[in-house]
Amino acid sequence: MAMSFFDQFMSPVYLGIPLMALALTLPWILFPTPSARWLNNRVLTLQGWFINRFTQQLLLPLNPGGHKWAALLASLMVFLISLNMLGLLPYTFTPTTQLSLNMGLAVPLWLATVIIGMRNQPTHALGHLLPEGTPPLLIPVLIIIETISLFIRPLALGVRLTANLTAGHLLIQLIATAAFVLLPLMPTVAILTAAVLFLLTLLEVAVAMIQAYVFVLLLSLYLQENV
């Protein structure tokens, strides 16, 4: 049976049971939990250093009111990086290539930032819909445009993450298929293609980390506007 390149993005099913929940809970099992000892091992020390540094960088542009989101945003960052990186392993499934999952993460968090802005400072939150000094004739048009751009934000968050990971996985599979086909025909070209595949894999590792960071960074910027 001919397999499509997009079959790798189908949610895995075993005995009629979707394994999406297993793919989402597995990353949490892989992280070591802190112990009650005074001294930790190297893995725990590195993990704690990374989370502390990331949290410090994330909270720099935020007001003190937004610091309550530190644990949520740091956890989301580690979770997305884990899902993206584990999806690069052979015979694995990347849940973040599903637009439904990414929208399920983006919409509630974006909506929470909007609700916080409407509750704490409604005048300032609504002021973003109409810049100061706008000519009277442009006021209705600008309000409509800013409202549309506000509701497009969660869609942009989900589509950006999905599109970047999907494109990288498809490109890796295409180049790997080309190298496999060219190996008996043109070994030299196949070796060069394999070298390109190795470099592309390194690039995809960077993309997996950067896209998780961009997702959380944009959420923090949306939060800054409403805090």
Automatic annotation (TrEMBL):
| Regions that span the bilayer | 12-31, 69-89, 101-118, 138-159, 171-199, 205-223
List the InterPro entries.
ATP_synth_F0_asu, ATP_synth_F0_asu_AS, ATP_synth_F0_asu_bact/mt, F0_ATP_A_sf
Main localization (coarse): mitochondrion
Q: Which reaction is the catalytic activity of this chain?
A: H(+)(in) = H(+)(out)
Annotated GO MF terms: proton-transporting ATP synthase activity, rotational mechanism
Record bears the keyword Acetylation: no
Q: What keywords is this UniProt entry annotated with? A: ATP synthesis, CF(0), Hydrogen ion transport, Ion transport, Membrane, Mitochondrion, Mitochondrion inner membrane, Transmembrane, Transmembrane helix, Transport
- Bilayer topology term: Multi-pass membrane protein
| GO cellular component term, pick one | mitochondrial inner membrane
Q: Which domain of life is it from?
A: Eukaryota
**PANTHER family xref list:** ATP SYNTHASE SUBUNIT A
Note the subunit structure.
Component of the ATP synthase complex composed at least of ATP5F1A/subunit alpha, ATP5F1B/subunit beta, ATP5MC1/subunit c (homooctomer), MT-ATP6/subunit a, MT-ATP8/subunit 8, ATP5ME/subunit e, ATP5MF/subunit f, ATP5MG/subunit g, ATP5MK/subunit k, ATP5MJ/subunit j, ATP5F1C/subunit gamma, ATP5F1D/subunit delta, ATP5F1E/subunit epsilon, ATP5PF/subunit F6, ATP5PB/subunit b, ATP5PD/subunit d, ATP5PO/subunit OSCP.
Q: What is this protein called?
A: ATP synthase subunit a
Q: Which organism is it from?
A: Seriola lalandi dorsalis
Q: What high-level taxonomic lineage is stated for the organism?
A: Eukaryota, Metazoa, Chordata, Craniata, Vertebrata
